């Protein structure tokens, strides 16, 4: 165990990690891990007050940890632009970008820029963020982008004729679309990085079925019966964070891989290579999604 801990510190010491949605759940557990192993952690969160509370929990346990909170609203392209510009003025490198934040099955709604809320926040927000941070990523040796998908990408599609949900909306259907988009984006990004001989690699992962804030009912916790079922079938957030940590640190990964739990149905367990749904390997869909994402966000990737 100590040897493994030493290796993790060697891999992370002195590095800078940005984690979106780092104030709770899987993002917070990942932030704890990176911070205690020597990485400077930037908690990119929509609610700064909650972010500061989460930061304090890390600092209390690990006083030497370097943890900062920065405001980022992935449902607002202007907020994303300001975050990227602010980051560039404060830091000259970026080793790890963890695209973790997400919303799950909300009532029909739109982002500040008029996108359907789940597609706009979960995919387009991270697409825009990654593109604007790419100059720092590609100038940082051995940098990585890790984007969180979900088991919900299975049996999902990209509804190009109804991306805004105006022709009909179902929360779970559109959540699956956003998570498939995350996976398609991660794979296409890695492909383009390799085509331009850029050392940065892109990977995707999923947490299995983990007990996080995504499983809250509105502003209330789940009913007692549901909590009991969750405890039986869901793994804790600290286990759900392991695929993220593995994707960010495992030296043998080359880019383009998809990491998930190794247990039955890929719902629980320890991180291992995962085979995504065939839809996630459709190159025509990848290219079309990429082009539309650039058009919708106004963010063009500079691979030069």
TrEMBL record:
Gene3D superfamilies: NAD(P)-binding Rossmann-like Domain (3.40.50.720)
Pfam family for this entry, one: adh_short
Protein name, UniProt field: NAD(P)-dependent dehydrogenase, short-chain alcohol dehydrogenase family
Molecular-function GO terms, alphabetical: oxidoreductase activity
InterPro entries in UniProt: NAD(P)-bd_dom_sf (IPR036291), SDR_fam (IPR002347)
Organism of derivation: Mesobacillus persicus
Oxidoreductase found in the keyword field: yes
Record's keyword terms, sorted: Oxidoreductase
Membrane-traversing stretches: none
Family matches, as PANTHER family: PHOSPHATIDYLINOSITOL-GLYCAN BIOSYNTHESIS CLASS F PROTEIN (PTHR43157:SF31), PHOSPHATIDYLINOSITOL-GLYCAN BIOSYNTHESIS CLASS F PROTEIN-RELATED (PTHR43157)
